[in-house]
From TrEMBL, chains A, B:
Protein name: Methylmalonyl-CoA epimerase
EC number, as in UniProt: 5.1.99.1
Protein family membership: Belongs to the methylmalonyl-CoA epimerase family.
Lineage of producing organism: Bacteria, Pseudomonadati, Pseudomonadota, Alphaproteobacteria, Caulobacterales
Enzyme class: isomerase
Entry keyword Isomerase: yes
Length: 140, 140
């Protein structure tokens, strides 16, 4: 079921400071432009690596789900891991049948790459918050 | 400087249970054999994804650095992220010159893939424990 490791999600109190960290300190050569995902309460920015991406995530708005994470981890930290799946609804149904808990309503939302996503509850996933993302049909 | 996302490190109280999770629940198709790294106090197992790997890490011995992490995260969780670099000593010296803190003595050790590795202190890295690993000269 799970395919490519699409990205790792890293929460940060400041996308600008984190872009500087990955670009100027760690020498990553490609950082995208930050953009808002208001429906998810986050502002994000992707750092491109040769084989995967880092998604920097900053809280957007008072209800952002990232505030709680940053309260526990004020410097930021590893927030989630995103794996690609070919068909998000097939993946959801198979995982439910195997006993996994899907976060929220269980209906996929459109994620930062424009394809449907779901999150799996870390309690069933060895403490890791896992995002599943349908593989873009026209990869970019 | 940083190149491929070689792997994400996931701490677990049981490699066997985590292999079952990634293989049987999440449908990853390739899991290696677990092996011990006594010098680092860990037992590890790699799950292969099409573009990267998950390194499952279980404590080995009473002095394992993973015990503290599992005390805070009993189910396990995301422990570190490993980026490849072409030359570990050049990377270390450049990062030190930019103010990063290298964990331990600062002398590279040989990691799970047989090439030299170093860890960077999360306090300078946005709360993320970063491993740098010299790219294998003969990739496998």
């Amino acid at each position: 079921m799970i395919g490519r490791l699409n990205h790792i999600g890293v929460a940060t109190p400041s996308i600008e400071a984190s872009v500087a960290l990955y670009r100027d300190m760690l020498g990553a050569t490609r950082a995208g432009e930050p953009f808002d995902l208001p429906a998810q309460g986050v502002r994000v920015c992707f750092i491109d690596l040769p084989n995967s991406q880092i998604e920097l995530i900053e809280p957007l708005g008072d209800d952002s789900p990232i505030h709680g994470f940053l309260a526990k981890n004020p410097r930021g930290g590893q927030h989630h891991v995103c794996f690609e799946v070919e068909d998000i609804l097939e993946a959801r149904d198979a995982l439910r049948a195997r006993g996994a808990s899907i976060l929220g309503t269980g209906e996929p939302r459109i994620g930062a790459h424009g394809t449907p996503i779901l999150f799996l509850h870390p309690k069933d996933m060895g403490g890791v918050l896992i995002e599943l993302m349908e593989t873009p049909k026209d990869p970019h």
